[in-house]
Amino acid sequence: MTALALGLRYFAGVFAIAFALGTIRTLWLAPAVGAMAAVAMEVPIILAVSWWWGRRLLARQPLGLAERVVMGGSAFVWLMLAEFGLAMAFGRAPGAYLASFFTADGLLGLAGQLAFAALPLFIKPARR
């Protein structure tokens, strides 16, 4: 399996969980504790899921460092495209979507997304 295909699988596996958690965060958690606290609670869970899923994928298909960069980078691109598509589907204007990254909770979420992309670099590949 190529690094691009593995990046797509990495994105899809994590996004499935993140979509469910994001729904909970947006509809119930953020109104109760505030947007920043809600994102601060969600990010570590998503990163733990990312680590677990990335380890599973890389245990089955070990990749070299450059290939893991492609895996994480392509997963990040898929994530941004999916989030942008969802924002448009739910009626957010493109400018409002981009502006959301320049809030405290948006920056924390973006930091989590960048960490998600970088995690494959830090997952020790299985010995061959």
Relevant terms:
128 residues; mainly alpha
Please render the helix and strand layout as text.
Elements: H1 3-33, H2 35-60, H3 65-89, H4 94-99, H5 104-122
Task: Please give a quick description of this structure.
The protein has 128 residues and is mainly α. The protein has helices at residues 3-33, 35-60, 65-89, 94-99, 104-122. It is 84% helix and 0% strand.
Q: Describe the largest sheet.
A: none
- The H-and-E topology, N to C, reads as HHHHH
In helices, the fraction of residues equals over 70%
User: What's the number of extended β-strand segments?
Assistant: 0
Q: Uncertain segments of ≥5 residues (pLDDT<50)?
A: none
Give the overall pLDDT as a whole number.
94
Radius of gyration: 15 Å
Portion of residues in beta strands equals under 5%
Please explain how this structure is put together.
The chain is built from five helices and no strands. With 128 residues, the chain is mainly α. The longest helix is centred in the first third of the chain and has 31 residues, at 3-33. It has helices at 3-33, 35-60, 65-89, 94-99, 104-122. It is globular, with a radius of gyration of 15 Å.
